[in-house]
Write a structure and sequence with these properties.
The protein is α+β, with helices and mostly antiparallel strands. Helix content is 39%, strand content 14%. It has one domain (11-233): L-fuculose-1-phosphate Aldolase (3-Layer(aba) Sandwich), CATH 3.40.225.10. The chain has an 8-stranded mixed sheet with strand order 4-3-2-1-5-8-7-6. It is globular and about 55 Å long. Mean pLDDT is 94; it is low at 1-5. The chain binds zinc ion. Zinc ion is lined by residues 116, 118, 181-182. GO terms for molecular function: L-ribulose-phosphate 4-epimerase activity.
Length: 238
């Protein structure tokens, strides 16, 4: 045992980290497949829980390195960071969004996966700083209400992470539109966060089209609640 716990993956997390690297690499392929990203934009991360650290401070996250082409994504290329965003393992610098992902994991213990994209329609709502109103049953199912807008925040410190947490904590939504930036989504694991990113873009597109045709009809709160409860109980994470 060495005295460098934050500079290498602890032996008891080796298998979990390697599994997460494969899963996160595979899930990155979903972003271009669903046309959520261009060039190297976008990232998926997953938390690796350290069961020897009940307060979560020993947890790690696996994420894509900065500037890596989607054609070059492999499990081995993924990087590992601690929940302060420090690199623990990897040959490349972590994604420039790592601090935001790390802040979410550090402050929302229930979150196991985070996804960020600049998907076109969700980002268009973010550019207007306008929440997506809950006018579709699939929105009630997945997000339990409107998709909210988070504050304008500059990349480079933890202000994006803070804005995500302040907006989503206590909200049923798994997606937040960071103003003038784009969507961040969360889930119990990385796959659930990817699903939320795909559905966020889909509802952003459908509601945008609806708005071009007239005023979308709101769904009564009691129906939103019933749809959300049913969907989460039947299909939701356990
Ligand atoms: Zn971004």
């Amino acid at each position: 045992m060495t005295n460098t716990p934050i500079t290498e993956v602890p032996a008891h997390l080796r298998a979990a980290v390697d599994a997460a690297k494969q899963k996160v690499a595979d899930l990155h392929a979903e972003l271009p497949r669903w046309e959520l990203v261009v060039w190297t934009a976008g990232n998926v991360s997953e938390r690796v829980r350290d069961d020897r650290s009940p307060d979560g401070t020993g947890d790690l996250l696996v994420i894509k390195p900065s500037g890596l082409s989607y054609d070059d994504i492999t499990a081995e290329a993924m990087v590992v960071c601690d929940l302060e965003g420090n690199l623990v393992e990897g040959d490349r610098a972590p994604s420039s969004d790592t601090a935001a992902h790390a802040y979410v994991y550090a402050h929302m213990p229930e979150v196991g996966g985070v996804v960020h994209t600049h998907s076109t329609y969700a980002t268009a709502w973010a550019a207007r700083g306008e929440e997506i109103p809950c006018v579709l049953t699939m929105m009630a199912d997945e997000f339990g209400g409107p998709v909210p807008v988070g504050p304008f925040a500059i990349i480079g410190d933890d202000s994006i992470g803070r804005g995500i947490v302040e907006t989503l904590r206590g909200s049923r939504s798994k997606a937040v539109l960071m103003q003038n930036h784009g969507p961040f989504t969360i889930g119990g694991d990385a796959k659930a966060a990817v699903k939320a990113a795909v559905l966020c873009e889909e509802v952003a597109r459908a509601v945008h089209v609806s708005c071009q045709l007239g005023e979308p009809l709101p769904i009564a709160q009691e129906h939103v609640d019933a749809l959300y409860d049913r969907y989460q109980n039947v299909y939701g994470q356990r």
